[in-house]
């Protein structure tokens, strides 16, 4: 005999003396003899399709060949402290913990990134410049997502911008300016050290000259 859903889809001709298959938005009740009670396993608990409380639901096929208006789902309601209630409570606690952990970790990472960026601005800028120059940007787009559409568009625009010759030229110019700035800073430090060293030698010679005069 075909299943209840198959009977519904195929406009199944109900056998005389039976209640026809029907769906009450919870369970699909198969063809059942009149004056008999259909018995089905309770539906899954929430989103856990593989977990039930092991109870049964009942629905009466009346003498006139029609189903009772409502099925009896009393056996499907978990008692206080039952497995279904514990599962629901555990699920809520787990989601609550995941939200808090996720937000805290994200906040700490953002703060750490901000500190690194403030203290090592030039290094961070050099890294952002070197990524496209070395072709590392192509590693970020090995996978082209199809969905959701917003993510697909974001990856597409990112690839177009990074691959643009104008953007690459701008990044190269910024890298050249950064390299020149670092070189000038190193020259100033070297010149400052040289000036301090020559000033110290001059003071030492002056002191020696004064000590030689009576």
Automatic annotation (TrEMBL):
UniProt KW keywords: Membrane, Receptor, Transmembrane, Transmembrane helix
Entry-linked InterPro entries: GPCR_2, GPCR_2_extracell_dom_sf, GPCR_2_extracellular_dom, GPCR_2_secretin-like_CS
Domain G-protein coupled receptors family 2 profile per the UniProt entry, residue ranges: 3-80
Record PROSITE patterns: G_PROTEIN_RECEP_F2_1 (PS00649), G_PROTEIN_RECEP_F2_3 (PS50227)
GO CC term (a single one): plasma membrane
Keyword Transmembrane part of the UniProt annotation: yes
Gene Ontology terms for molecular function: G protein-coupled peptide receptor activity
Gene Ontology terms: biological process: adenylate cyclase-modulating G protein-coupled receptor signaling pathway
Transmembrane regions listed in the UniProt entry: 96-120, 126-143
Entry protein name: Parathyroid hormone 2 receptor
Origin species: Toxocara canis (Canine roundworm)
Native organism taxonomy: Eukaryota, Metazoa, Ecdysozoa, Nematoda, Chromadorea
């Amino acid at each position: 005999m075909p299943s209840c859903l198959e009977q519904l889809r195929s406009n199944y001709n109900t056998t005389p003396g039976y209640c026809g298959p029907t769906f009450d938005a919870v369970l699909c009740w198969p063809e059942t003899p009149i004056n008999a009670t259909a018995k089905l396993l309770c539906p899954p608990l929430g989103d856990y399709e593989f977990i039930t409380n092991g109870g049964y639901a009942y629905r009466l096929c009346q003498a006139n060949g029609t189903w009772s208006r409502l099925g009896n789902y009393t056996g499907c309601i978990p008692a206080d402290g039952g497995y279904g209630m514990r599962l629901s409570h555990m699920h809520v606690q787990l989601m609550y913990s995941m939200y808090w952990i996720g937000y805290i970790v994200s906040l700490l990472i953002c703060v750490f990134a901000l500190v690194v960026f403030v203290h090592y601005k030039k290094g961070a800028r050099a890294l952002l410049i070197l990524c496209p120059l070395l072709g590392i940007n192509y590693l970020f787009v090995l996978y082209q997502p199809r969905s959701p559409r917003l993510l697909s568009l974001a990856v597409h625009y990112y690839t177009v911008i990074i691959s643009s010759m104008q953007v690459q030229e701008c990044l190269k110019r910024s890298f050249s300016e950064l390299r020149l700035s670092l070189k000038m800073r190193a020259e100033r430090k070297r010149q400052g050290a040289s000036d301090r060293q020559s000033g110290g030698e001059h003071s030492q010679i002056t002191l020696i000259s004064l000590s030689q005069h009576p």
